[in-house]
Amino acid sequence: MIATNKVKVASVDELTPLIGKKVRVKDHEIGIFLTANGEIHAVNNICPHKQGPLSEGTVSGDFIYCPLHDQKIDLKTGIVEEPDTGCVEVYKVEIIDRDVYICI
């Protein structure tokens, strides 16, 4: 992943634990997730299997479950858990003065 631009997408206060937030950066639709342990992750918002909106899925630990068919995706790596296959792009997240930036 080569970051070419750092873009502010939200403030930490706008995020709700375990609830995804959809943002658009350039032509990318990105899901942002605040986990129960306070980590913030950003991944491509489109499930690789049925193109479901991941930001509407269920967060559990470091995983997001697609709302269309429950495919389990690791928020840290973007890899779909077996027995399913596939992956989504993961974006580096930086927090600066309580603002959330995505490197894209």
From TrEMBL:
InterPro entries: Rieske-like_NirD, Rieske_2Fe-2S, Rieske_2Fe-2S_sf. It comes from the Bacteria. Keywords: 2Fe-2S, Iron, Iron-sulfur, Metal-binding, Nitrate assimilation, Oxidoreductase. GO terms for molecular function: 2 iron, 2 sulfur cluster binding; metal ion binding; monooxygenase activity; nitrite reductase [NAD(P)H] activity; oxidoreductase activity, acting on paired donors, with incorporation or reduction of molecular oxygen. GO terms for biological process: nitrate assimilation. SUPFAM superfamilies: ISP domain. Residues 7-102 form the Rieske domain. The keyword Metal-binding applies. NCBIfam families: nirD_assim_sml. This is Nitrite reductase (NAD(P)H) small subunit. It comes from Staphylococcus shinii. The lineage of its organism: Bacteria, Bacillati, Bacillota, Bacilli, Bacillales.
